[in-house]
């Protein structure tokens, strides 16, 4: 009985009718002949409501299911599918209310669907998470009514479903093609001019116009009677590490996503490309301590291990200890490696405090310092100020933007590779930097 009461709702149409009947009863105080027809109307409505409830509760006429993917991709649109089946022998008007995880702060989800007799429908909607972690869906509520719409029956399905939000594997898959040697020309992807070649031999082939004459193989030329050249390929199985700064400076938000999450998404996409280029990939996250360390490897399950490690990376709002980073790198990474350091500096003084440790790292490894443009400051530099206040804001913004460029030049002056990038272009620019280093044989 309690479950029946909890599932029964009265329709808005019934309340409109009851309001009209109450008005007629009020008018019948002065107009007496309205009294009897009003009672007849009220009785008729009660009979209709009774039959409406019998039709809805005669059997369990609605089945529904929320189909979630195994995991969500952070900062991407993720599909959630709803499958609804009508077991009634008549048309049903339904209202679907899905209790979306609290992280989205969305309480206006409502989908109205008309289901024909014994019909089935599947629809989907998209969710874009901006934080990693566990997301719990509440009830999938479905309110069914007949064409009378006097009563509604509530059905509840899929209570407390949980899905984990991982770093952006959708973005990783989109950038898969960059692992190919013959890259097509797309917006945001620059061509890398190959300077020289590496010394890992691939094959001997016939000379074609444009080949480096210094690679001519004279013995093979004499044997075949045609010019033959040695062809080289990028060196493989080189250790590549992503070093992720989890300090408080990486908590800054841009477009709803923190710099740390941009770095994590980029690390996953970059690691995937490096593995496809046959390099060994590892990662390390640090702030006031080293939280995660994955040794470089080219095993098949390495990308899954990195994905799980990145899922748990978070910031504790501490100041980052670069001296600790240097000591851990020196202890755990013995071979010369490519270090992609994701961090952020807002002031030259902050960079100079860490510069001795960065310089020490660059002497033992090929270090690439990746930090971020402040896109809001860049936007302010491009507006036309309309008053003194806006002009002052623009001056400060230009100073901040110039400081970023000065920091990049300071790093270059100490022989450190640098990448200054907007947060939204981080993944593609980091991969381009890696491909440039591979093509120039710098590692």
Structure described in brief:
With 443 residues, this protein is of the alpha/beta class. It contains 12 helices and 21 strands.
List the helices and strands and how they pair.
Layout: H1 2-7, E1 8-10, H2 12-27, H3 35-57, E2 62-67, E3 71-73, E4 78-86, E5 92-98, E6 111-115, E7 120-127, E8 133-137, E9 140-145, E10 151-157, E11 161-166, H4 169-174, E12 200-206, H5 218-224, E13 228-233, E14 239-245, E15 253-254, E16 257-258, H6 259-276, E17 280-286, E18 290-297, H7 302-311, H8 322-332, E19 338-342, H9 348-364, E20 366-372, H10 375-381, H11 388-413, E21 417-421, H12 426-440
Parallel strand pairs: 3-11, 14-17, 14-19, 19-20, 20-21
Antiparallel strand pairs: 1-10, 2-4, 4-7, 5-6, 5-9, 8-11, 9-10, 12-13, 15-16, 17-18
Helix pairs in contact: 2-3, 6-7, 6-12, 8-9, 10-11
Helix content: 25-40%
| Poorly predicted sequence stretches spanning 5 or more consecutive residues | 182-189, 191-196
What is the average of the pLDDT values? 88
Count the beta strands: 21
**Mind telling me the CATH superfamily name of the largest domain?**
von Willebrand factor, type A domain
Strand content: 25-35%
Q: State the domain count.
A: 3
Distance linking N and C termini: 74 Å
Question: Which strands sit side by side, in order, in the main sheet?
Answer: 18-17-14-19-20-21
Biggest sheet features: 6 strands, mixed
Transmembrane segments: 14-31, 37-57
Pfam family, one: DUF58
InterPro entries: DUF58
Protein name: DUF58 domain-containing protein
Care to describe what's here?
This protein has helices at 2-7, 12-27, 35-57, 169-174, 218-224, 259-276, 302-311, 322-332, 348-364, 375-381, 388-413, 426-440; strands at 8-10, 62-67, 71-73, 78-86, 92-98, 111-115, 120-127, 133-137, 140-145, 151-157, 161-166, 200-206, 228-233, 239-245, 253-254, 257-258, 280-286, 290-297, 338-342, 366-372, 417-421. It is an alpha/beta fold and 443 residues long.
